[in-house]
Amino acid sequence: EAGVVQSPRYKIIEKKQPVAFWCNPISGHNTLYWYRQNLGQGPELLIRYENEEAVDDSQLPKDRFSAERLKGVDSTLKIQPAELGDSAVYLCASSFRLMNTEAFFGQGTRLTVV
Amino acid sequence: GNSVTQMEGPVTLSEEAFLTINCTYTATGYPSLFWYVQYPGEGLQLLLKATKADDKGSNKGFEATYRKETTSFHLEKGSVQVSDSAVYFCALQYNNNDMRFGAGTRLTVKP
After folding, report:
1. pLDDT tens string A24-77
2. If 0-12 CB within 10 Å is exposed, 13-18 middle and 19+ buried, where does residue A69 land?
């Protein structure tokens, strides 16, 4: 069974440019998470979807970040414009919408803003 | 709010040494608790979990017990190997599927 797939794996952009990340969750997983992981730190939640509904986006910097999950499957996370401080690994995870079930993570996208 | 506090690293041990990585949590209600591991160059993967008080999660020789009275979920292994070198993350999950992570503890095991 395929795991969570993210692309691209790496991205280098200049500041003020836009960037987008794509995530394909495990088939049948209702819940999809986007996390940001800074160097030497744990993942920090940006947004959580239940199917196509964003149920927690309180940590998403909405002035420059946006996300969508059309049809409740794939998701994209966008940053426009990017800032130097956005350099991090962006992780996507998915899980069944049941209590006590673990989240499965993709490999992440390492973003470097120069 | 709900949060996880992990023992700061890095931790360096010799092969076959005993490992403890401390994790405490703050939460309302009864969260599920997890340990995730991130090997070099790989994504996060579940190591073990416990869903209610006094449950013990175990995998690959690692164990952790859900202690409600001390709000802890410490990770232990009796004899570490070089291949256990990785970053370990403690995490908690609320009933609404929200999952929060600790800062991570880097473990290096030397031969």
Report:
1. 999 999 999 999 999 989 999 999 999 999 999 999 999 999 999 988 899 999
2. buried
* B86-109 pLDDT per residue, tens: 999 999 998 677 889 999 999 999
The residue with tokens 């690692």 is: B62
Q: Answer whether B89 touches A (CB < 8 Å).
A: yes
DSSP assignment of A3-68: --EEE-SEEEE-TT--EEEEEE--TT--EEEEEEE-TTS--EEEEEEETTEEEE-TTS-TTTEEEE
Q: Of A50, A20, A8, nearest to A32 (Cα)? A: A50
CB contact under 8 A, B101 and A40: no
Q: Which residue of B has its CA nearest to A50?
A: B97
